[in-house]
Amino acid sequence: MPEKFNYRQSLQMRRNYIGKPCKLHFEAAPLKIVCASKQYVYDDNGEEYLDCVNNISHVGHCHPQVVSAGQEQMAKLTTGSGFLNDVVAEYAKRLIETFPESLSVVYFLNSGSEANDLALCLARSYTKNEDVVVIDNAFHGNLSNMVSISPLRFKRQQLKQEDWVHVVPCPDTYRGMVRDPLHPDAGIIYANEVKRLMDQATARGRKIAAFFSECLLSQCGMILPPQSYFENVYRYIRDAGGLCVVDEIANGMGRIGEHMWSFQHWNVVPDIVTIGKPVGNGYPMSAVITRREIADSLKEFSSGFGGNPVSCSMGLAVLDVIKNEKLMSSAKSVGKCLLDGFRAIMPCHPMMGDVRGLGLSVGIEIVTDTDSRKPATEAADMLTYRLKQEKIIISNEGPDKNVMAITPPMCFTADNAQRLIQAFDHALADIEKGTLGRPIRPATEGKYTAAQMSIIVGDEEDVEQEPDSKRTKYFDLD
């Protein structure tokens, strides 16, 4: 079926009617994606791209089991706030069964921002305290309070840091105060920075309500804190009367492979967990899971659409697919392929500073050189465009936008990993040949030089056109 608008019309309408801060992938030459299946997306010309970034379509784009569950329930009942419904009750039970025993109550919402906002309300309601401790360069949502506890966001927007927000150093063992992931005391050194800041806050009469963090710090650049970090931080926070909140929105639901939830890798049990994005495989839904006494501290709460029967039906289907298709085991083995493969090519690339991650959450740090470890932001940006030429979608994230982030749908395969590593190897080599020995000229006001644009946009006439893919797609099935 032909598209309603051509590429230029779609681009112009977006520029006319959608807010400028809502950025596109490949801003200089955006893709128009019209459909998707499994770990692949397709543009308006029918070109297939390997999706290495979409952690929202958790079990694969348009998974038929999830789609069917939503369609069937939508034909029966779409909203039912305040009424009994078996689908909602069953999903609550099934979801809770994936958590440690103490985390026994769930609230349903619609987005990760809402989930984190409710977590803050619960922490304040239970502790009767106000202040929040967060990790530098973290991001926890777009609502007003969430921007206030998201250093990545309030610093970029040049907003004032609130008095009730306390920012601690990122426990980064690549370019932080401890630059050795094997340092035996790295965890306690970084945790003691949290204690030092809390002691300063309490000396000023402040009282801590919560410590908010991811465990695998995706927005900070796919940082893996030292193994003992959270154990010590949680002890300090709880001794001060606060609660420990884990944001599992980006890395939960089995993505790390070895566990369903990333906090389990660090052998801690938080007081509150927030989840979102992947739980509905693209359908807007989120949840807050906590202890009974914390849940009951909130005297009143309602959500018109949170936990509606359609979202819960799709949530149940996602849990079934993760189990039936053994996606956690796959994430563990394919993640190992990615980490081993990227580490194998590191000696050939002076601009590869670090490779880190768990399961299908992987980050590759791009630097000007491995001695200075200076972020090579522009080279990372160019690398995304160069891989786009190879029909691979990848993003550069982190506070300096120099960490290549790999967070594909969970159906990503070892063959996909091999293809990505080989293309990455060749693309980075091309960039290094043009940048090593001389600095990359800074782009002026977001514009690229002619040489940079040749990498970003490419020469379409020189690109060998691949034959139409014969791959079976979900949307081609009956």
UniProtKB/TrEMBL annotation:
Keywords: Pyridoxal phosphate
Gene3D superfamilies (alphabetical): Aspartate Aminotransferase, domain 1 (3.90.1150.10), Type I PLP-dependent aspartate aminotransferase-like (Major domain) (3.40.640.10)
Residue stretches in coiled coil: none
UniProt-listed InterPro entries: Aminotrans_3 (IPR005814), Aminotrans_3_PPA_site (IPR049704), PyrdxlP-dep_Trfase (IPR015424), PyrdxlP-dep_Trfase_major (IPR015421), PyrdxlP-dep_Trfase_small (IPR015422)
Biased composition (Basic and acidic residues): 467-478
PROSITE patterns, per database record: AA_TRANSFER_CLASS_3
GO MF assignments: pyridoxal phosphate binding; transaminase activity
A GO cellular component annotation in the UniProt record: mitochondrion
Residue segments, region Disordered: 459-478
Organism superkingdom: Eukaryota
Pfam families: Aminotran_3
Family the UniProt entry places it in: Belongs to the class-III pyridoxal-phosphate-dependent aminotransferase family.
Stated name of the protein: 5-phosphohydroxy-L-lysine phospho-lyase
Gene name of this polypeptide: LOC106153187
